[in-house]
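Board notes (copied after class):
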Amino acid sequence: MGFRDFRGHRMPRPSKAAHFQIEDGNTRIDLKCAEDEPMKACADLLLEVIDRLQGQN
């Protein structure tokens, strides 16, 4: 079993992992967490990365 595209080809199941993409000027953050990691833990990590980037300016 699995998902099929419009042509009937088998596709992998979509990931349930949290995924954040943020762009601001020349800065781009693309953070994808592990499937079994809670979204809050992933969001907290993202905030930590943003805080560190802001501290560099």
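Comment from the instructor: Residues 39-55 form the longest helix (17 residues). Strands lie at 3-4, 10-11, 19-24, 27-32.
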